[in-house]
Amino acid sequence: MKEIKLNGSVLSLKGEEIKGPDGKPLKMNEIVADMLAMSKSDKAIRKLSIAQAMYLDGDMELEDADYKIVKSVMESSQASAIVVGQILKAMGVTE
After folding, report:
1. Average of pLDDT values for 65-90?
2. Alpha-carbon distance 27 to 58, whole Å?
3. Does residue 23 come out as left (phi exceeding 0), alpha (psi in the -120 to 50 range) or beta?
4. Interval 26-74: pLDDT, tens
5. Nearest to 91 by CA among 74, 79, 80, 77
6. Which of 22, 29, 38, 40 could join 6 via S-S bond, C-beta 3.0 to 4.6 A?
7. What are phi and psi of 25, to 5 degrees?
8. Domain locations in the chain as residue ranges
9. Quick one: 42 exposed, middle or buried, by C-beta within 10 A (0-12, 13-18, 19+)?
10. How high is the pLDDT of residue 63?
11. DSSP one-letter string for 4-62
């Protein structure tokens, strides 16, 4: 089991919350949930289950296999390094 804490906001290089087009802060758990939900359809049911739980609460424990799924989706994401890097760091990835 891996504990992750993704309830925080994505921060700019100045340490300020990055806001979306709606003016609300970008939340790490919501970004990960969206990326899981929109990723390729391999393991689609598992990804959807993780995404639904993550969207509601980003502070959670993941089975090792689920952690690998989330990590893989994030590492292959086309999102910017400032977003993906902060999420991976919050997941405990060091490199």
Report:
1. 94
2. 9
3. left
4. 999 999 999 999 998 789 999 999 999 999 999 999 999 999 999 999 9
5. 74
6. 29
7. -60, 145
8. 2-90
9. exposed
10. 95
11. EE--SBPB-TTSPBPB-TTSSBPBHHHHHHHHHHHS-STTHHHHHHHHHHHHH-SEEEE
CA proximity to 66, closest of 55, 90, 50: 50
Query: Taking phi first (over 0 means left), then psi (-120 to 50 degrees means alpha), and beta for anything else, what does residue 90 get?
Result: alpha
Task: Give the separation between CA 89 and CA 95, rounded to whole angstroms.
Answer: 9
Query: CA 20, CA 24: separation in Å to the nearest integer?
Result: 6
The token pair at 82 is 């400032």
What does the DSSP 8-state code read for residue 80? -
At residue 94, the pLDDT reads 83
The C-alpha atoms of residue 22 and residue 44 are separated, in whole angstroms, by: 29
Q: Are 38 and 30 in contact (CB under 8 A)?
A: no
Q: Can you tell me the distance from the alpha carbon of 58 to that of 74, in angstroms, rounded to the nearest whole number?
A: 15
